[in-house]
Amino acid sequence: MRFWLLFALLPALAPLYAQDFDPAEFFGPGHFQRAQEDPHTGTLNLSLSGEMPPFVDFYSSGEGDFADRFKPAASGLAIAADSTNHRTCEIALDFGVTRLDGKVTIVELEKGTLLAWHLHALDAAKDREFLAEVRHGSDGRVTLQVRVGDGTTFKLVPGSSVSAPALELPCEFTLQVAGDKLSATLGKLQTSIDAKVEAGHRAGLAVSDGRARLKQWQVSGLLAPAWVADAAQRLAAQKALRRLRELSVGGLLGGVSRHPYNQTATDLAGFTQEQKDVRQRALGHTPGARAQALVNLATALPANALAQFEAGVYALLAGDVQAGVRLLQAAQALRKDSQTGLALAEGLRRLGQLSGAETALAAARTDLPQDLAPEYELLLGRLQAAKGQLPKAAQTLQAASTKYPDNAELQSFALSAQSLTSPQNLTRLAATGPLGLTVLSDLPEKSVLTLTARAAPYLEKFRRWLPGLARKLEGTLVIYAGPVDYLNAALIVAGDNLDNVAGMYLPACIDGKPTVLACRGFGEDELLRTLVHELWHLAFAASGQAETAPRWLNEGMAVYLSAGRVAGGIMRFDRLPAEFSPEFTAPPLADLQRALQARGIDFYLPEAISQNYAAAWALVWLLAETESALLPRLLAGDAAAATDLPRQLQALQVALGDRLAKLEKDP
Fold this sequence. Notes:
This protein has a 16-stranded antiparallel beta sheet that branches. A six-stranded mixed beta sheet has the order 1-21-22-20-19-18, sandwiched between helices. The protein has a two-stranded antiparallel ribbon with strand order 23-24. By secondary structure, the protein is an alpha+beta fold. Helix content is 43%, strand content 23%.
């Protein structure tokens, strides 16, 4: 699977979602004031004096951590962009408009500092970028001017510069784009240029070479259709994600927690009155606080099965899977109980201990209360899917959903399993896909072929590392147009990580053959990276090496290859993968060792997954870029190479730090 942050990316356009788009819902309470005459015209307001909402993005050039470059306070947002490590810092709005009227109050602008309104074109093919700049000179003089960008550089618009001998603060810095004009004002200074806008822009405030403090940022305009479609799609995906996450995480356990525990009255007799009061209050708390209070009770009552059971279930619901399993095992040791066994089976499934989960589930079937039967069938289907038995899981869940039509969890998981085994709303393309795969999609064939053609140079690299790879592989590639259909389909196999999974490789899915799933709705660049990542998994499996290869090698190669870029007809691997932050540094030796030792599901445990991916990519990248003989030997299954690598790990970690430092300095 390819992991990433789901909504940090700009999806492709989806006009269907935009029909009922509500900007106020997208931005949240108190931010967007809609114009009465048009629901897609309005004003976005930010005080810049407190916590920033999720539709605000932060950027910085240069190296190092830039989180401390933006500091909100009651007096405004302080932005520090020194000329050494942080050449430019920018705060930008996820708010695309075709007409724009904006203003911000400048509270402080250090001498030598530049502040600019930065307009990002939503469609670079139709519109240019603009910078309306204020430069506070070292001599105190202030200049207002406009630059126009062509995608690579910004050029000063002749005649746009105006200046004054001094800057009087505080003052308003305004920008207006209307008709065919772009106008900026700073106090009494005014400038304007000809600037026709077709597709729309996003607005940002950029600071270079010094410090600034800003407050009361306001942007008004007509929402750009392209941005509306994009934002509407993300909003729909967020809603779907919340619903599916609740079904996946809380569905089965919700039924278990609602069912009366066997011998509750007997076990409650072992509580003091104070402990009963603590328990009663805890059941009304938020998930995290509730779990912590009940875990504390379980610690104080180690011989009480009810205390252990409730703490275990609510620890699972709060996301502390290991604690939940430990507590449920303690409850089961105190008293064998089918309800406890069902919850324990779910916890073991989440830990990837599938054999243990199957054993616990089989034991739970005996004397299971009838109203927990739907939860049993749901967990049985999820376990079958986790073992790669998707057709069997689809049969189990379909039968159960028919038997229990009012159970929303069963209905959703049955639909997901059906979507993966017998998709109904996808068209089979006439043309052969990458690596000879069959392609199913709800996109036009021309669009799909244009997208998959971009993957061709990357797939040729597969053959360098897998020299015996067949020209045509068996399997299916599925590309969804929008994220909602993708998320619904992915639920059965990625329900525990839906908001972090961009694509999937399934060894046996459609027609029982290897299948790769991806979604165009997360952006075409992200789709390309996802295709390369997941197709590598399919190709590596087809080579016969994946089954015995360590997980770090398989995932590290997938991330390494997907991070390549084609420049001048040459494939280069000279940049960090998109899923890593710009502050990425060499993983410590302990992280490298842990990634190398992780087996199976251990590689993907929540507490270690991000570090394991980082370590895996870094190690593969170093071995590949230094043309180490170790990498081809490892990919070929050379046992001696697997023994040699740990012995060289410390030296490799040092070399990795040196090479990454150089990589980060590259433009």
